[in-house]
Write a structure and sequence with these properties.
The protein is of the alpha/beta class. It has helices at 59-71, 91-104, 127-143, 154-159, 163-175, 203-216, 231-238, 255-260, 278-289, 293-300, 304-310, 318-328, 347-359, 366-379, and strands spanning 2-6, 12-16, 35-38, 75-78, 110-114, 147-150, 181-186, 221-227, 246-249, 268-271.
Length: 386
């Protein structure tokens, strides 16, 4: 099976597919790590919307994908960055998403984002505004029955004057949590509005503030997800966490090594890349749980070049690659995204994602993937016939 993939010059090079999909069915769903996929949403392609409009979601396809994740044994990190939270999915849409997921899958492991994104940071005057916003979303998310991921706040980043303001704000928010939550440290490569988060000018200072918050509220903290794309920083902080507090890797560049761990410890997983890699991730985790670390690495290590391409700079547009693969793999009938984000990557990006997805075995139905990518190539005036 062949396809002609265009390069940056517009020339096409014949690529012969390996067409060896990884198995996604016959393996144990019992893992020795907590494993979450941060899940994307499927846009309604027929809705009368414009960029900036309220989200129009295809709920049937969106929930079907969540059933797929649950069937694989994965937890669902709901209404997070991968679902275009704050980049097409507003708070109203996020809450409806959480409500529908909990109703559809009442027994699934679901943690959902509670933040302050219904506020416009430009309109926030005091930290009290931030506190009230966190309280409002926490009440709503916990009211659905979902557990909570306490999201980083653009409004807090814009208002806080020092690390003490973060300590105070998180203390108040955590006091309102019914069950232990997962904190989320989202780097500015994912959201530039979060630069300088925790009030520190560098990683060491920011980490110490975060550790202070965790230590002061340990009974309310299940763990922390770090999305800094820097394995050394994650390992450093992992070794400093209080006993019983989990590290959840959000490092979409180095996840196999961080999940496998070392002689001191390991990270659990809460990853956007485990949306397009869901089947491979679940299969690999089953091998790790069975004590076969070599097979775990043999499955997941070849997916890293794909992940690094999907999450390449500008990183905040990684969702385009995630949804592109969902379309190629038959989880939705179109390649349309909230806010028109299907247009946020160039054609050469899609060519590289396609090739790398085939090479690591995550194209579930290679013939369907070739057919659909040829449709996209035609939109660009390219011919995929090799």
């Amino acid at each position: 099976m062949r396809i002609a993939l265009p390069d940056q010059s517009g020339r096409s090079k014949t690529y012969e597919l390996l067409a060896r999909p990884l198995p996604t069915e016959n393996f144990s769903r019992s893992f020795n790590r907590r494993v979450f996929s941060a899940a994307h949403v499927v846009a309604d392609p027929f809705a009368d919307t414009n960029p900036g409009s309220a989200a129009a979601v295809d709920w049937d396809a969106t929930l079907a994908f969540r059933r797929h994740l649950h069937d694989l044994g994965l937890g669902i990190a709901e209404a997070m960055d991968t679902a275009q939270r704050g980049m097409g999915l507003d708070w109203k849409g996020a809450l409806e998403l959480v409500q529908r997921t909990k109703s559809e899958l009442p027994d699934a492991l679901v943690y959902s984002g509670a933040g302050t994104d219904h506020l416009n940071p430009k309109d926030v005057r005091t930290l009290d505004d931030v506190d009230r916003a966190y309280a409002s979303q926490l009440e709503a998310i916990q009211g659905t029955g979902s557990d909570v991921i306490l999201m980083a706040s653009r409004a807090l980043a814009a208002t806080a004057k020092s690390s003490k303001d973060y300590v105070a704000a998180y203390g108040k928010a955590l006091a309102l949590c019914d069950r232990p939550v997962i904190l989320h440290w989202l780097g500015d490569m994912f959201d530039p509005a979060l630069a300088g988060y925790w009030g520190g000018g560098d990683f060491e200072a920011a980490m110490q503030t975060c550790l202070e918050i965790i230590s002061a509220n340990q009974s309310k903290v299940d763990g922390i997800k770090i999305s800094l794309l820097d394995k050394e920083k994650e390992i450093q902080m992992r070794r400093l966490l209080p006993h019983g507090v989990k590290m959840y890797t959000g490092d979409d560049f180095n996840y196999p090594e961080l999940i496998a761990g070392d002689e001191v410890g390991y990270s659990h997983a809460l990853l956007g890349i485990f949306d397009p890699l869901a089947g491979a991730a679940a299969f690999a985790m089953s091998q790790l749980a069975a004590g076969d670390k070599d097979s775990f690495h043999r499955i997941l290590d070849p997916t890293v070049p794909l992940a690094r391409t999907i999450f390449g700079s500008p990183t905040q547009y990684y969702k385009t690659g995630v949804v592109f693969l969902a379309w190629l793999n038959g989880f939705q009938d179109h390649f349309v995204m909230l806010n028109g984000h299907q247009a946020m990557r160039p054609l050469t990006y899609f060519s590289e994602v396609f090739r790398l997805a085939d090479e690591c075995g995550v194209l579930r139905d290679p013939e369907l993937a070739v057919h659909r990518f040829n449709q996209l190539l035609a939109v660009y005036g390219a011919n995929g016939i090799a």
